[in-house]
Amino acid sequence: MTLAGKKVVVIGGSSGIGLATAELAKKEGADVIIASRSAAKLDPVAERLKVTAIPTDVTSDQSVADLFRRTGPVDHVVLTAAQLRTGPFKTVAMDDVRATMEGKFWGAWRVAREAEIRPGGSLTLVTGFLSVRPRPNSAIISAANGALESLARALALELAPVRVNAVSPGVIDTPIRAAMPEAARKEMLAKTAAALPVGRVGMAEDIARQIGSFMSNGFATGSIVYVDGGALVN
């Protein structure tokens, strides 16, 4: 199965994994639509890739509904967008906890409900390996990721013949880590790479290739694939 001529919507497509996925789909000949909250980030990417940009806030019922009203029926939807806020379990603000679930879990729920995906098409969610390998100060992210993976399995049944899968990345070097001081970021990535069987951290393109496989493989549904450089077996 090829993506040539297929309509692909990538929510979170202005940077990181979403951008890499949009680039992959475009190279394969898809009609690509990218969406994210910031028009300022979207527009330059859309111009460079020669794709359509639609500003969308996944925390808003109306914004998500407007997105899919404008796209009409589509073949594949990929959701990488999330606004994550976390901290120590006992002290993290409840507003931050709710915001994380609102963006990552309920955002996916809204997208799955509103998207009109053609039979045999796909919805791919991006979770994260903290769902099965939690760490301190990230309980809400672990919970949100685990909930998304359960949702993917349930929707594979409920939305069939639309296929629903999830990709669960390990540590990926994407712009989301740019908020860290550069020296600390490099040190963290180097330590992580040294501990992994593959000897490096992931890149956005690594995850995009798995997403591309889910879009093109008509026999894949209800699957959760961990792309983590071997972290779960290390």
Automatic annotation (TrEMBL):
<dbReference type="GO" id="GO:0016491">
    <property type="term" value="F:oxidoreductase activity"/>
</dbReference>
<keyword id="KW-0560">Oxidoreductase</keyword>
<dbReference type="InterPro" id="IPR057326">
    <property type="entry name" value="KR_dom"/>
</dbReference>
<dbReference type="InterPro" id="IPR036291">
    <property type="entry name" value="NAD(P)-bd_dom_sf"/>
</dbReference>
<dbReference type="InterPro" id="IPR051122">
    <property type="entry name" value="SDR_DHRS6-like"/>
</dbReference>
<dbReference type="InterPro" id="IPR002347">
    <property type="entry name" value="SDR_fam"/>
</dbReference>
<dbReference type="Pfam" id="PF13561">
    <property type="entry name" value="adh_short_C2"/>
</dbReference>
<feature type="domain" description="Ketoreductase">
    <location>
        <begin position="6"/>
        <end position="175"/>
    </location>
</feature>
<comment type="similarity">
    <text>Belongs to the short-chain dehydrogenases/reductases (SDR) family.</text>
</comment>
<protein>
    <submittedName>
        <fullName>NAD(P)-dependent dehydrogenase (Short-subunit alcohol dehydrogenase family)</fullName>
    </submittedName>
</protein>
